[in-house]
Amino acid sequence: MNLRLTPQTRQIIEVLLHKPLDWKYGYEISRQTGLKSGTLYPILMRLAERQLLETDWEQGEPGKPPRHIYRFTAEGLQFARANHLAEPSRSTSKTISAESFAFFGVRIR
């Protein structure tokens, strides 16, 4: 798949990989990455157009507008895991534990 993995795209992938089966709000992703909506939403739309993200609308409480939610498709999760582990984002400052790698099927010696 031909997808440009910018540092911003990698940040989004990292956030989504934290709990890959959970739905996430765009606002939640924005807060965790520090990306502004003008950067975040076009990336989310490109990932969805390439069938890497599943999107849906969550109906909120009465009187509140529905919110768009995102999570990986099976193909998207496979793509994200492969690309995230191959070249981690330079913006990541957190240490990844051996248990985290084990979750992705990677052994650390």
From TrEMBL:
SUPFAM superfamilies in the record, alphabetically?
A: Winged helix' DNA-binding domain
Where does the record place the Transcription regulator PadR N-terminal domain?
A: 25-78
* Protein origin, superkingdom: Bacteria
Q: According to its UniProt record, what is one Pfam family this protein matches?
A: PadR
What's the protein called, per UniProt?
PadR family transcriptional regulator
Q: Please name the source species.
A: Acidicapsa dinghuensis
Organism placement in taxonomy:
Bacteria, Pseudomonadati, Acidobacteriota, Terriglobia, Terriglobales
